[in-house]
Amino acid sequence: MKNARRPPRPPVVRAERDFADWGIDAHWATKAAWFALLGALTLLALLPVAWMLSTALKPSAEIFASGIRLLPANPTLEHVLRLWRDFPIGHIVLNTLIVAVGITSAQLVTSVLAAYGFARFRFPLREPLFYLCLGTMFIPVQIVMVSNYLLIGEWGLLNTHAGVILPQVANGFGIFLLRQHLRVFPQALLDAARIDGATEVTVLFRVVLPMVRPVVAALAVLFFINSWNQYVWPTIVLTNPEAMTLPIWLRQFMSAEAGSSWGLLMAAASMGVLPALLLYFAAQRLVLGSLAGAGLKG
Amino acid sequence: MPRRRSLATREALTGLLLVLPALIALGMFIYRPLVDTFFLAFSDWNMVRSERTYIGLANFQEMAGSATIRRAVVNTGWYVVWLVGLLIVFPLFVSAGFTVIGRRARRFFSGVIFAPMVVSLGIASILWLWIYNPISGLSGAIWRELGWTPVSWLSNPATVLGAIALIVAWKAFGYNMMLFIAGMGTIPRELIDAARVDGADGPRLWRYIVLPLLAPTVVFVLFATLAMATEYVFTPIHVLTGGGPTDASTNIVFEIWRQAFRWFRVGYASAIALVVFAVFLTITVVQMLGSERVVSYEER
To answer: Do A143 and B174 touch (CB under 8 A)?
Structure first.
C-alpha cells in the first residue's frame, strides 16, 4: 500500500506546508537511520559553542586536565569575573553595539527609501540603476577594501566607528528584498491615501511601512547579526584596541594578553556568540520565514 | 497636457530622490573603488609616496611569475573542492532526510543545524583553534583517547587547508541545507505521487524526479558556494594561520590583503583584486546564463 495514491489534501493543510515530506511513510529503520544522522549533525553544530561555554565555566585546572569532560565538574565564574574586572570587555561590547546599530539603522533607512522608489515610481534609467544596486551583492569586500581604506584614511576616519559604518550605509540585498515585497503592494491603497491629501512622507510611513513590517523586522535582525559578526572590513579600519569591535578585539586579545588562558578567551568569545544566537532563536521563524534564501554573511 | 507632464516629472523627481541615498553610498564605496582598483592595478604605489607611478602591465607580469600567487591559486582550487564536498554534496544528501521526518522534528533539526550561521566567522575561528589545539584541546583529547598521537592540524601543511575549510563548512552547512530543503518544497507534490504510482521509489525517485527538478537550486547553491569558498576562507586564514605554514593555507583573496596591508604594495594588490573580480564576473555571468537553461529545462 506504500505507493497508493493519497486522497487529495484539504487546501488549509496545503497552505500550511510548503515543504517536502513525501518520505514520511518510510520504513521505521530508514527513519531511525536518518534521525541518527540528523542527531549527529545537531551535536556537531552545537559542539564548538558548547565547548566554548564549558571551557569558560571550568576552573583553569580542569581546562588543562587530561581526558574529555564536556560539562565542568566545578563550574566557576572566575574567568567571566576576571574578564570584566581586568579587561575593557564592556567597552568592546559597546563598540560592537555602536557599529552594529549604526550599520543596521543606516541600511534599513536607505533600503526602505530606495526599494520604495524602485518599486512604485517611474523615472529615467530606473531598471539599469536597480541592477547596479543588485550587482553590489556579488562583489566581495576584499576587492574594494584597498581603495576604500585609502579613502577612509584620506578622510581621517581610520580607527573610528564612522570609518567602519560609512562604507556600508547601503545594502543591495535589502533593496532587492524590500522591492520584491513592495512591488506586489496594491496601487489603489497608495492612490486612495494620496487622494485623501496625504503627503509622500505620510504615504510611506502610514501606508507602505506597516504593510511590510515583518520584512523590515527580518532585515533588521539579519543586518544586525551580520554587522555584529563582521570581521574583514573592521579588521582593516580598526587597529587601535580602544576602538575595536569584539571579533577583532578577540584576535588581538588572544595574541597580546590571553595567550593560552583559554578560559578567559572563551568567556570573551561567549560575549560575541551568545547575543547573536539568542537573537537568532528569538527571531528564528520571522527570519527564516521572510528571507527563505537570503544571504547571511560575516 | 502640461498638468500631466508635471505630474510625471514630479513622480520621477520623487523616485530619484528616494533612491539617491543608496545610489550615492553604493557608488561611492563599491563602484568608485572598482574603477580606482582598475587604475591602481597599472601603477606602483606604497601608500606613503605622494605620487602613483604608471608601470603598465608590470604588476600582472609579476603575478604570472610569482610562486606565492601560483600556490594561492592552487589552494583556492583545493578550498573549492573541499567546500563543494562539504557544502553541496553532503547537505544535499542530508536534506533528503528531511522528507522522512515530521514537521516538529524538521523545525527542530533545521533550526539548530542552521544556528552556526549566526556565529561570527572571526570568533568561530578561535572556537575551532581551541578544538584543534593538540595539547589541551578537544581533538587532542579525543586522539589520545583513541591511542593516536594528537595532530597539530593548523601547523601541518598537509592538514591546514582541510582544517580551515571545515571551519567555514561548520558555519555555512545549515544555510546550504536550508536552501536545498526550500528547493525541494517547491517540487509539486502531484509529480512525486504520480511517479510513485508509476513505481518509482527510493533511489529512482531521486534520480529521475527529485534531482532533475532540484537542478536550478543546486546550480544556484553551487555558484554561491564557489564565490563563498574564496571570500569566506579569508577570515580563518587571517585569524589563525596568516597563510602559513609556508603558504600552505593562503588563498588568492588573502594575497590581496597581504600585499596591500602587510607589504603596502597597493598597485600589486589591486592587480590581484582586478583579476579576482574578472573571474567573479565571469562566474556570475555564466551562472545567470546557465540557470536560465536549467530553468527552461524544468519548464519543458
So the answer is: no
